[in-house]
Amino acid sequence: MKKAISLIAAAACGAALAAAPxxxxxxxxxxxxxxxxxxxxxxxxSRKSGAGPLAMNAMPxxxxxxxxxxxxxxxxxxxxxxxxxxxSKTYNGASGVDSDGSPVYSCAAAAKxxxxxxxxxxxxxxxxxxxxxxxxHRKNRGELYGIALDLANSGFDFFAGGGLDLNEKTSRxxxxxxxxxxxxxxxxxxxxxxxxxxxxxxxxxxGDGKILTxxxxxxxxASIDAAGLGQPTLAEIVAKAIEMLDNEKGFFIMAEGGxxxxxxHSNDAATNLRDVLAMxxxxxxxxxxxxxxxDETLVVVTGDHETGGLSMGFAGxxxxxxxxxxxxxxxxxxxxxxxAGEIYKEKVSPSFDDFRPLVERAFGFRFxxxxxxxxxxxxxxxxxxxxxxxxxxxxxxKAKVEENTKYDGEKKYLFGGACKLVMSHKAGIGWSSxxxxxxxxxxxxxxxxxxxxxxxxxxxxIARKIKSFYGK
Length: 472
Fold this sequence. Notes:
Elements: H1 2-19, E1 25-31, H2 36-48, E2 61-66, H3 77-86, H4 107-113, E3 117-125, H5 129-132, H6 144-154, E4 158-162, H7 168-171, H8 183-189, E5 192-195, H9 198-202, E6 210-213, H10 234-245, E7 251-257, H11 259-265, H12 269-292, E8 297-303, E9 306-307, E10 311-312, H13 333-346, H14 352-363, H15 380-398, H16 415-427, E11 429-430, E12 436-437, E13 441-447, E14 455-458, H17 459-469
Parallel strand pairs: 1-7, 1-8, 2-14, 3-4, 3-7, 4-6, 5-6
Antiparallel strand pairs: 2-13, 8-13, 9-12, 10-11
């Protein structure tokens, strides 16, 4: 009886998908590590700054989206991307394969088979877990060279973002391709044009062929740090993708705000929200295209999981939130820590006072004044926390302790972390983790077929609904 009911339900679902309109153009935005709290903190910051509500939050259809992987309630980005892209749950760490390790194919591949052009873009490395879920088939997300080869073999039309995240060691993982020297040369052999500068990128025109960018060898900079570095914004990347991919049969675009997750891992609220805002600017580009093609375009915005256990509320501020205080922070904690390291190089035994100008410039904290009159003045307790962290780091520098450089790893040095924690608390923000959580994410949609994205859904439903547009 239960099996019969399941078959009836599946048939009804299939009929509903078959009856849904098929958009010519599909945009899928993924905020890595972005759940409802990340969207709402950016929303309130945007409203406070006078910029108004986020475009992604104003979309008419919404779905609460479950994110678990096949082997854990808390997913990693590879399993989540495979679910969103391919419609299959898999184990954490897998890219484009199911739980048995067999390849599964993405909505991007289905779009390509249907004759549409395909663009994949991100603010982190293009071989990272989320973009890889749309073109790669690897049992381990760490097989970076193999993932890069899968990229080149995908035949997709447009890849943009950070570099391939490769080195000589990863190249040796696939010795059969040694004649190409590296994956970029292999991509060139497969017809890709390697674009290295923002100016060259913005000068691209339709007809310039398949594109793979190499602006940097790692991720693009966080939005808060990116000014003046000659890197395109995600909004500029999406705009160029539209220009390059538009054609009679349409296109599929996946654009990831990957640095949202990295800021979540580091519990850096100001950096996190600015990357959410940067992704929203890219969403606005897609919505402008939708306005020009209202009956043919679908825009979907989702997250792969939540990162950081972010909460809008902290005991120290009672029931108040002060999102506007985050505007005082001018750089990411990662950038702050690099500049702090330069001070250690310049001075043999720097004092806490040597770091005060940097702290003031980076976070907007003030060391003099009345905290009750000026909330950015450090309280005695906050100052004590910063001094304690500084003393810890000074001892570590003297002992030449190496920092953990992984973006999602626990840091050994504490000063930058203490500063960002003070900033979060001044704004009324709390964090419960430096890792992913099992919190569901919010999916929003607008345009042709958007009504399919409502209710309570699995992340796999996103791929299945998009694949249905291509008869898959």
